[in-house]
Design brief:
By secondary structure, this protein is α+β, with helices and mostly antiparallel strands. It has one domain. 0% of the residues are buried.
Length: 53
């Protein structure tokens, strides 16, 4: 199963994936995790991902 995760802080999620039951699922080939940083898709020079209220 491929699981794509979008986050502003993918490094934080990466730690959880590599040190929990999710790691065992990945080692057994049951799950495949792909982390994506939302800031990579930002169009402005400050790489903002939020908007004004």
């Amino acid at each position: 199963m491929r699981i794509d995760i979008l986050s502003v802080l993918p490094e934080m999620i990466e730690g959880a994936i590599h040190s929990s039951i999710l790691k065992r699922a990945q080692e057994k080939g049951l799950a495949e995790f792909h982390l994506h940083n939302l800031r990579d898709y930002s169009t402005d020079k400050h790489r903002r991902v939020d908007d004004y209220p």
